[in-house]
Design goal:
By secondary structure, this protein is of the alpha+beta class. It has one domain. It has three helices and two strands, in the order ααβαβ. The radius of gyration is 13 Å and the shape is globular.
């Protein structure tokens, strides 16, 4: 099994493919003082859950890049 397939299976039930919990990650982001229309790029975006939350909470302009299908 290739690494990207293994990662997709291992993280399929996680909001983020990240060792931090959703609450911790959002707590860190709240300290960044993002302004509306700020530009955010997420490389290795997975399901883009982080970007979706940033757009909803901060009205940023977001771009997600993910190389692996099924991430």
């Amino acid at each position: 099994m290739d690494r990207s397939r293994f990662s997709a299976i291992a993280h399929r039930h996680h909001d983020f493919s990240n060792p931090l919990s959703s609450a911790k990650l959002m707590g860190i982001i709240q300290k960044t003082s993002l302004q509306p229309q700020a530009k955010v790029i997420d490389i290795g975006a997975g399901k883009c859950e982080l970007l979706i939350r940033l757009v909803e909470q901060y009205q940023v302009t977001a771009t997600g890049i993910e190389l692996y299908e099924g991430a």
